[in-house]
Structures are given as C-alpha cells and as structure tokens.
Design goal:
Elements lengths: L5 H9 L3 E6 L5 E6 L2 E2 L4 E4 L13 H8 L2 E8 L8 E14 L1 H13 L2 H5 L5 E16 L3
Antiparallel strand pairs: 1-2, 1-5, 3-4, 4-7, 5-6, 6-7
C-alpha cells in the first residue's frame, strides 16, 4: 500500500460518499455511489439493507469484483467556489468479504461512522462487504 499523507487520509476518512468504479471481465464499466469507512489502510463498504435490484451476491458490482478485482474509488468535495474543489482517486484491489475478522472490523467502522446502519441491522458477523486496498492514491485540488 502506498504511503498516504495525513491530510489526504483525513479527507478520505471524513468523506461521506464515494463512487466505486468496477468493470466486468470484458471491461464493461460500472460506477455506483457507496458509503464507506477507511481505517488508514483499506476502505470498507457494506452491501446494506437499502433497496437493491437484486440479492447482494448478485449485484453487478459484486459480480464485477469477483471477475476483475481492479477498482477505483473517487471521493470528492464540491463547492460553487471552484477554488475549493478537491478529490482523491484511489486505484486498488477489491475483495468481497462475507464474514471473518476483516468483515467485523469493517462493520465496526461503518457502524461508528454511519448511525443509520444501527437501525438497518448491519451485522458484524455476516453479510456482503467490499474491501478496497489502495495500490495508488492521487489527490487533486483546484488550488493548493
């Protein structure tokens, strides 16, 4: 994993929504918004109880990751004052977690960051979660 400057790690951690880019084995892309938590080394995003078009294991993002683990995540900050625009692009490898220590760690982080997950019944033990391990992290700002 690359070294991530503290200011960039803080920006990633503070973000509320990211955009996950995946591609299937043929290269067909998909981008979806995600809630996520960052532990300084990896991003965790649960496939939660919000309404979905399919069962969690059948979602296209999950099928894509199983076929092609290379993903991107963009976390951005937008304001009408474009001098304050900023984003971080994370390129890395994803894996699908369905339980275990890493799953529980990700669930704990998500439950801490998003109180809504408590009322949705996000499990610490089982479910479907995406873990993204950064291989490259790039920051962009309109002004430094």
């Amino acid at each position: 994993m690359p070294s991530i400057p503290a200011s960039v790690a803080g920006f990633i951690s503070a973000g509320r929504v990211g955009h996950l880019g995946t591609a299937d084995a043929s290269g067909r892309p998909l981008v979806v918004p995600i809630c996520y938590a960052f532990d300084g080394a990896a991003l965790f995003s649960a496939v939660d109880a919000k309404p979905k078009s399919e069962a969690p294991e059948r979602l296209r993002r999950i099928r894509n990751i199983r076929a092609n683990t290379k993903v991107s995540v963009v976390i951005d900050h937008y304001e009408e004052d474009w001098a304050r625009l900023r984003h971080v692009l994370i390129q890395g490898d994803a894996e699908v977690l369905t339980g275990g220590v890493e799953f529980s760690r990700g669930a704990d982080l998500l439950l801490e960051k998003y109180p809504q997950y408590r009322s949705m019944g996000l499990s610490r033990d089982t479910g479907v979660m995406i873990k993204v391990t950064p291989a490259q992290v790039r920051e962009w700002r309109y002004s430094k």
